[in-house]
Design goal:
2 helices
């Protein structure tokens, strides 16, 4: 074989190897694109799942906080009602003593009322 024939054979072999390499690279590019697409879909699915789980957890925490606040409000209302009844009872129990004292010492009661009014007026007018 001559040099030219040998070179042509080598060139064809080299061209075939380059063509095979190009085909392999194209196949690799296609595989990488498919992998990227699958990875994106998987990541999107996982992110969506995490979002829904977080939303559910937040909803549960909100519901629990609302229930706790409602229970605290009921307890505070019950305590306020008890204190109101206690104050009313104490006032009713001591009203008789107050009436009797005012009947026995009317001038002292008037002086005390005027003094309390003057003190309250002075405090409220003071700015």
């Amino acid at each position: 074989m001559s040099d030219e024939a040998e070179k042509a054979t080598d060139t064809r072999a080299l061209e075939e190897q380059v063509a095979a390499l190009m085909a392999d690279l194209e196949s690799l590019r296609s595989d990488v694109a498919g992998l990227a697409q699958a990875s994106g879909a998987y990541a999107s699915k996982r992110a969506n799942g995490a979002y829904h789980a977080a939303r559910e957890t937040a909803g549960e925490a909100y519901d629990e906080a609302r229930e706790t606040a409602a229970e605290a409000l009921k307890a505070a209302q019950a305590r306020l009602d008890a204190l109101s009844r206690q104050a009313e009872s104490w006032t009713n129990d001591n009203m008789g003593n107050l009436r009797e004292t005012v009947k026995e010492q009317p001038l002292m009661a008037v002086a005390l009322a005027v003094s309390a009014g003057a003190l309250l007026g002075a405090l409220l007018l003071r700015r």
